[in-house]
Amino acid sequence: MGVEKGSMILVTGATGFIGRRLSAALDECGYEVAVLSRQPSRAQQRVPQAKLVEAWNPLSEPAPVHVIERVQGIVHLAGETVAGRWTEARKRAIRESRVQGTRNLVAAVAQTGNRPRVLVSASAVGYYGDRGEEMLTEQSAPGRDFLAEVCQAWEAEAARAEDLGVRVVRLRIGLVMGPDGGALKEMLPLFRLGLGAPLGSGRQWWSWIHRDDVVGLAIEALEKDALSGPVNATAPAPVRNSEFTRTLGRVLRRPTWPMGVPAFVLCMLQGEFADVLLASQRVIPTRAQAIGYPFRYADLEPALRACVERR
User: Is the pLDDT assigned to residue 311 strictly greater than 60?
Assistant: First the structure.
C-alpha cells in the first residue's frame, strides 16, 4: 500500500545532496520527516524540516526499532560517495556503506511489529556496467564490474524486506544534476574557464537526471502501489558525453574543446574510477514512463539551465 498523507517518512542520507531536497519536498507535501544520522546534531541543522532525528551508525548496528515502528515509508539514500580516486579502502567503504547499511536497516524492519508499507532504496545505473549502444531497461541484465557487483548486492539486501511484507522499490539513479552539488560541482569550475572537453572518445552514453526528478520519483514510489522492484531514475533522453559537453558549454556561454581528454590521462588521474566516467550506459526509464510520471526536466539543456541559473 502507498503511504498516507500526514504520515511519517524516514529518510537516511538526509543531509546529502538528494536527501536535503527530498526532506524539504516531503515536508511541502504534508508528510512528517524522520532522520537517522551518525551526526544527529548536524542533521538537525541541515534538515530543519525533521520532526524526529535519531543517531544511527549503519555499519555497526540495526536501525533503531522504535523509529521504524513510527514510519509508514522509508527512503534509504545513505552511502559513501563513489566519486574520486579509488583505493582498496575506499572500495570497501563504498561497498560496506551500501550493503551492510541496507542489511542493518532491513534487520530493524524485521524486528518491528508495525512495519512500514514501503521501502524506497537507492541504487544506481552502475548496476548495468559498460554496455555500449545497448538500450537498457529495468529488465536488462546486470554488468560485471565493481560498481555493478556492488549494486547487485545492495539491491539484494533491500529486496529482503519483501519477505517481510514490505513493498520495495529500487531506484537505479543516473548522473544527478542540481544547483548546489552532485555531478556539476566538479565540472563547473573547468567549464567556466573554457576548459570543458569530452572524456575519452566522448561517444559513451551518459544517463542523467535532475535532482528534482529523483525526488519526484522517490515520492511517487512512496505513494503508488504500482511501483515495485527496479525503477530507472533517469531522464528519458540520455546523451553522449560529447553532447553533454557541448550543451553545458552553450549554457555557460563558454567554449569547449573538441578533442577529448585521452582515456589514459583519466586513468592516470582517477585510477579505476575513470572506468565510471568512460562507461556507456544508455538507460531508459520505462517503469516511470509506464505510470505516466511527468518529468520536470526531460531534456538536458533546460535541466542544466535550471541548475546554473539557481547557483
Answer: no
